[in-house]
Amino acid sequence: MKSDAYKRILIIRLSSLGDILLTTPMIRGLRHKYISAVIDFCIREEYRDIIDCNPHINSILSYTKDDSGVDILKKKIEQGNYDLIIDLQNNMRTATLLRGIKTKILYFNKKSLQKFLLVNFKLPLMKGLPSIPVRYAQTLPGLTLDEEGLELHYPASVVSDLPDTGNLIGFCPGSRHYTKMWPHEYFADLGEILTLHGYKIVLLGGK
Prior knowledge:
Layout: E1 8-12, H1 17-21, H2 24-33, E2 38-44, E3 59-63, H3 67-79, E4 84-87, H4 92-98, E5 104-107, H5 112-121, H6 132-138, H7 156-159, E6 167-171, H8 184-196, E7 199-203
Parallel strand pairs: 1-2, 1-4, 2-3, 4-5, 6-7
Helix pairs in contact: 2-6
């Protein structure tokens, strides 16, 4: 099938928060390229809020990690009649989901070997690679990105509670992994600096 004929597209990125946010430039690029296409997104249920209000997505396929959740999701994918699936997760879980699916599937090149050597032996083999959003987009040849960066859309009820004036800066002081957490005193120091420059801090995340 020619790329200009794609009518139903499924993007798969199951986790985690940061990696899902990094897909948003690609989602926007797909919408600009395929204006009338159905673009669905497959994600784990606990991360659904990240893209729930994204205006470029038609539907969200979410699942839980138990075996029944995977089976139900696989049936949803089969019933979606997609003519293009873009697997940005590209792991054993998605291999199971997509086994037997008869449609065109594109897989994100994770550079797994280079990443392993970097993490375990500090070999800088990933130096010079494009940013993750660009690499995501390269999964579909010919897809271009704009310069608008990442997107995070909130429900109107949340936006209505924000201040009407002032430049807002969102702080999300947490991470799933301790090694990725910025020390809380750094957030406090940065918040004071930004406040002195006229910004208002909005705290994001859970308890």
